[in-house]
Fold M28 family peptidase.
Amino acid sequence: MPRFLLFAGLALLLACNNSVPEFDGQRSFAYLEKQVAFGPRVPGSEAQKACAEWLVDELGQYADRVVVQSFNHKDKHSGRMIPMKNIIASFNNKPRLKRIMLAAHWDSRPRADQDKLENQHKPIPGANDGASGVAVLLEIARALKKQPLSYGVDIVLFDGEDYGREGELDEYFIGARYFAENIGKYRPQYGILLDMVGDAQLSLPVEYNSVRAAPHVVKKVWDTAERLGYTAFEKRMGPAISDDHIPMIEAGIPFIDIIDFAYPDQGHAYWHTLQDTPDKCSPQSLKTVGQVLLHVLYEEEQ
Ligand SMILES: [Zn+2]
């Protein structure tokens, strides 16, 4: 082979190694629909059990290791023990590697307390609030298998994020709290949480607690989105939101939350109601978030 062709070939090979995989929004949306089809993934329900099995199977096809962190939560009102599961999928488990953590909650809220009175005791479908973040992370898992990174990534699906009654924060973020309390020596360089990222009218202002805890990660993500032209990531300050990133920040991990709390658009009409269904979400919104994350992950290598 003439020398210039060899160099051209090498250059091409290097370019391929550094390329960022394409995020498949349709496939990710199918993951969202699949979760909703199980029924509300309320801790302790049959739907929760079935969905957990499916998530473990699905992640098992892509990750190097999947671990289920099972525990019981004592419901403070009924006194019942509620089984919960954090699902942890790890990629590239070689020792002493830098690691990055990605997270989302996979449970759905047991009560539609923002809905009209007769619906308030019913569990929500959780298409956006729950399934959307997981749907993005499953598609990222597929990309990580196809084109492995040189460092480690851990995808953690938290249970029990949305279990608490309105105003009773001690029964929110149950899975994330349990994970943080049992974190041991695990120290990812930083973490990114996805929550409510499927809204067809996506708008992602910067979340206040994230910028306080990890301004460099916020900058990296929002700069990447800006460079790629994804205007849903807005460089303005949004509200402070209590979410699964808080226990992780308290455990000393720089952690940000990518969240669109306005659902849809300005108000919260679908939030914590029976209206939180797949038709309010879109493949394009999942792609926006997923593609930005893939760029962040694969550009870490360069
Ligand atoms: Zn919620």
Summary: Residues 9-16 have pLDDT under 50 and may be disordered. The longest helix spans residues 127-146.
